[in-house]
Amino acid sequence: MPDVQSQASIGKSSPALVRPLRHCDRCRLDRPPASDFPTGKKTPRHGIAVRRQAGGNRPLVAGWMEWGLPMTVKGAKGQPLTKYVTNARNLDSPFWRSALGNAPNRCLVPFTHFAEPHPERGQGDDRLPKQAWFCLPDQPVGVFAGLWRMTDRGPAYAFATCEPNEIVAPIHPKAMPAILRPDEWDIWLDGTAAEAKALVRPYDGPMDMQVTTPRLSDGGALDIVEPA
């Protein structure tokens, strides 16, 4: 599981995430049964990803994919290790270049909120850091620019990151998820590699932030405590 201390995390998932996407022009969006949607506020291992269906008029289809694409790296003693990469930071690297250049390997990753650790320490259990939660006030559901492929464990995805905008930068100065506007979804899914890459840039639309203090629930799950 990606480290919530250093990775952007997708907010709580529910069927409501995909409903706004059902109304895309020229697209049909399917989703798994409601019982297939996980609940809870822990950093997810899986998330919804939306991609083009192969063949025909290629409508949109949605389904659960594992968050993190496997990459083989060398361990301390030279042994091969598998690392699961959740963020596509360098789209020019060979690992990501082929996926970016192949439109069927691009996907949309819907979200309601995403979080980054706040620089200040929290007062909750184990001195967990405060969380800065970001959302788009003009969109009930936002979309990250995603890349996916089939793996031995099933379909898996990551989302592209870029330089942070002025709202995210004070919290996470290195990067933020690449967020697509609704009129850019089709370009990301169907455009050329150059057209898609041009969309990976700091989000310039309205964005809200709220700082919360996490605490560990009795079951060990990470709960979000609203500020007083």
Fold and architecture overview:
The two termini are 30 Å apart. With 228 residues, this protein is mainly β. The model is unreliable at 1-42 and 216-228 (pLDDT under 50). The chain contains 3 helices and 15 strands. The strands form 3 sheets. Strands 2, 3, 6, 7, 10, 11, 12 and 13 form an 8-stranded mixed sheet that branches. A 5-stranded antiparallel sheet has the order 1-8-9-14-15, with no helix packed on it. The chain has a two-stranded antiparallel ribbon with strand order 4-5. Helix content is 9%, strand content 39%. It has one domain (9-112, 141-206): hypothetical protein yedk fold (Alpha-Beta Complex), CATH 3.90.1680.10. Strand 4 and strand 5 (80-85) form a beta hairpin.
List the helices and strands and how they pair.
Blueprint: E1 9-10, E2 46-52, E3 60-67, E4 69-74, E5 80-85, E6 87-88, H1 94-101, E7 106-111, E8 114-121, E9 129-135, E10 142-151, E11 154-162, E12 176-177, E13 179-180, H2 185-190, H3 193-198, E14 208-216, E15 222-225
Parallel strand pairs: 3-11, 6-11
Antiparallel strand pairs: 1-8, 2-3, 4-5, 7-10, 8-9, 9-14, 10-11, 10-13, 11-12, 14-15
Describe, in short, the structure shown:
The chain is mainly beta.
Descriptive terms for the model:
disordered C terminus; hypothetical protein yedk fold; eight-stranded mixed beta sheet; mainly beta; disordered N terminus; five-stranded antiparallel beta sheet; about 230 residues
* CATH 4th-level superfamily: SOS response associated peptidase-like
Largest sheet, described in full?
8 strands, mixed
The count of domains is 1
What distance lies between the first and last C-alpha atoms, to the nearest angstrom? 30 Å
Question: Helix and strand string, N-terminal first?
Answer: EEEEEEHEEEEEEEHHEE
The helix-and-strand class reads: mainly beta
What ranges have pLDDT less than 50 throughout 5 or more consecutive residues? 1-42, 216-228
Radius of gyration, Cα only, in angstroms? 18 Å
CATH class call: Alpha Beta
Number of strands: 15
CATH topology: hypothetical protein yedk fold
Total of helices:
3
Content of β-strand: 35-45%
Q: Which range best describes the helical content: under 10%, 10-25%, 25-40%, 40-55%, 55-70% or over 70%?
A: under 10%
**CATH architecture call:** Alpha-Beta Complex
Morphology call: globular
Instruction: Output mean pLDDT.
Output: 73
